[in-house]
Amino acid sequence: MVDTLTSPNFWGRGYTNNGMAKAADFIAKQFAGFGLVPISNQSFLQAFSYPVNTFPGRMAVMINNKKLVPGKDFIVTPDSRSVHATAKLEQKDSTHFINPNYRIIVSLENKLTWSVAPAAADYTSIQLDKKAAGDIPFTIQADIESQQVADFKTANVCAWVKGTRQPDSIIVISAHYDHLGGMGANTYFPGANDNASGTSLLLGLAKYYSANPQPFTIAFISFAGEEAGLLGSKYFIQHPLFPLKNIRFLLNLDLEGTGDEGITVVNATEFPKQFSVLNAVNDSAHYLTKIKALGKAANSDHYWFTEKGVPAFFLYTLGGIKAYHDVFDKAETLPLNEYEDLFKLIVAFNNHLMK
C-alpha cells in the first residue's frame, strides 16, 4: 500500500498533477471495497478548500553555471514567487546571498526541508544544499514558475463500521493522506513515512474492522490539508459529520514507518488513565520496545479534537530513517519493521476501550 501511495501517479499526494484528488479517490474506493459505508450516507468525501501556492511547471536553477537538481541540490521555499533571471549575487553573510533587482534570496542549508504555503511572497527564496553548492555562489540563472490557487478543492475521506451494540459510541482512527506534492514538472515528494505509512495502517485497520464489527462504531477519517496547517481536521471539527461528544477516543496515525526505538504518544500526560491502559496492553504482549510519553502538542490532526474536549492520542514511531519533508522519504527505504506490532497494539487497546 505504501508503494502505491508513493507512486508517481499520486505525485506526492499534493497540489499539482491532481495528486491529492487521485489519492482521495483511491482511499474512498478502498473503503468501499472493504465494505465500509460513508459517514455522511452520501459520499465518502467531505469537500472543503483553501488557498495554496503551487509549482506546476518550470523549476531550473544554475549556480556559477552549474546545473542543479531540484529536490536534491536545491528547493524553493513554498512562498516563492515566479522568477526568470540571470543575475549576480551579493554576499550578505556566510550563508545568505541576494540579488535585490530580481528579489532573489539564496541560502546555504545543511538539509533541504520543504513545506506548503498559502500564497506567494514578493521574493523568490532558493535554498541550496551546502554539499551541492560547492564554491561561493556568485551568479545565478533561475527559471521558476509558481501559481497561486485561491480555492484549492480537496476533501477528507470518511467512513465507518457501525457498532453492533453501542453504535453511538465511536472510536475514531485518523491519518492524513496528503503530503507536499510536486516542485516543478519533474520532481515530487513521495511522503512514504509522512504519511503513506499512517494511511496504509488506517486502511489495514479499516479492512480488519469491516470483517470484525465491534460493539462500538469504528470511524475512519483520512484528512487532507494536514501539511498546510491541520486544515482538514480543523474543517471536520467545525463541520462534524456526527456529534463530537460521541467520540470515546481518537487514535491519530502519522509517521508509522519505523519503530525499532518504540513509539511516542502525544497527549499521554493529558489522558493518563488511557495511557496506563496502553502501556499495560503493551507490557502484557511485548509488542513494542518502548512507549514514550509526551504532553499536548499541535503537531498533527488529533490537536483540534483535543481542543474540543475529545480524548485523543497521536502515535508516531521512533528510529529508522531520518528522511522528512524531502525527496528521500521513499517507500523502498521505509523499514515498516513494527507495522504488525503497532496494528496489534491498536486493536488490543481498542478492545479495552470497549469493555
UniProtKB/TrEMBL annotation:
**Name listed for the protein in its UniProt record:** Peptidase M28 domain-containing protein
Q: Where is the Peptidase M28 domain?
A: 156-348
Molecular functions (GO terms): metalloexopeptidase activity
SUPFAM superfamilies hit by this protein: Zn-dependent exopeptidases
Q: Which GO terms describe its biological process?
A: proteolysis
Gene3D superfamilies in the record: Zn peptidases (3.40.630.10)
